[in-house]
Amino acid sequence: MIEIRTAVEADWPEMFAQDVRAFGSPFETEARPLIRRTLDLDRFVVARDSSDGALVGVAGSFALTLTVPGGAQLDAPGVTWVSVAPSHRRLGVLRSMLDELHARHRAEGAAVAVLTASEGTIYERFGYGVATLVDEVTIARRTARLRDPLPGPLRSRAVEADAARERVEELYRRWHAATPGSVSAEQFWELFHADPEWARWGGSARRYLLHPDGFVTYRVDEKDRAQLDDVKALTDDAAADLWQTVLGLDIFDVVTADLPSDHPLREMLVDPRSVKTTDRKDRLWLKFLDVPAALEARTYESDGDLVLAVDGVPYRLTVSGGTARCRATEEAPSVSMTGPTLAGLYLGATAPSTLDRAGRFAGESTALRIFSTSRQPELGTSF
Ligand SMILES: CC(C)(COP(=O)(O)OP(=O)(O)OC[C@H]1O[C@@H](n2cnc3c(N)ncnc32)[C@H](O)[C@@H]1OP(=O)(O)O)[C@@H](O)C(=O)NCCC(=O)NCCS
Fold first, then answer.
1. pTM, rounded to two decimals
2. Is the dihedral of CA 45, 50, 53, 54 positive or negative?
């Protein structure tokens, strides 16, 4: 028998130990208090084996907000810290914990839940689909030059960590409000600013480049490359200014970054071959808890009307003037798809035509054009 219940403080040392074991993290015990302060234990469950009381599972969520196309910010529980002891795998412990969490999230009134996944085949069965992607790029800094006219005089400045604190938080909040697919970072600022050695994964302390409308953070990694962790610009001018400053980081042959696939860096350069995409990774996974509320929360770039079945439940979705009305209906659907497929459309990560070519939905595809967006969504913060 497995008992699932809300975590309490006495569970915390075992929760931490299990997480370290499950993910092979090199965290030290000294990390425990700082990490503890990122979590609200009321939002966590533990699974214990009733035969001996052993802790065999942990799962929980951060109370995040998610920006959707049009700028609305939804409460979006960010499911996290998911692990099951190796002695108790494939017995349904994860399923029981997620069922409990999702029931709580529905009761809180959340329209969606989100997570980042350790493996690509775990979460679709629980209703999650890939909702944001990112390209890992390598930039040959010595050959990468911005096209004329070069931005300048440059307003970006290298700033020490202490001086960057408040401005980075303020810029991130502005960027989150303006960027579909991004989540809030409030729980994580203390850990972010502490920048402890164990959280650097072999890299240097975090360095900052700040502009009035954007920022870059980077570390020098173990291969002596400048690894950009944040590239967040609110305007095209800020982006050009920050990139010109990054490309001025003499010494480094190579700069790495994770960028949305529609990022204009290649088009900004004289030699587009200075940028190579080395990987494309799923970032945010999203599950619908309340389809009508979620679909009404975003805006649409064109109007339309369709009956869309999601996991077999038909909804009439009517978009007029860019805003949607969505209601359950008895009408026959014109398009049918799963929740995970809709997750790909919802924030704009995947074009309807791509899903059509992949055979991911049944029915008439033209009506799905309303989901098209002009920008790729971007997660911005790992959790
Ligand atoms: C992933 C993990 C949490 C699964 O826990 P579990 O209790 O064994 O999972 P369950 O028995 O509840 O499995 C539920 C379903 O998910 C499937 N599943 C579980 N782990 C899977 C995996 N790694 N890959 C693919 N499918 C998986 C099961 O086959 C089962 O499918 P079914 O219901 O369709 O038959 C566990 O293996 C683990 O702790 N892994 C290491 C840490 C980790 O990766 N955590 C996820 C962080 S995002």
1. 0.97
2. negative
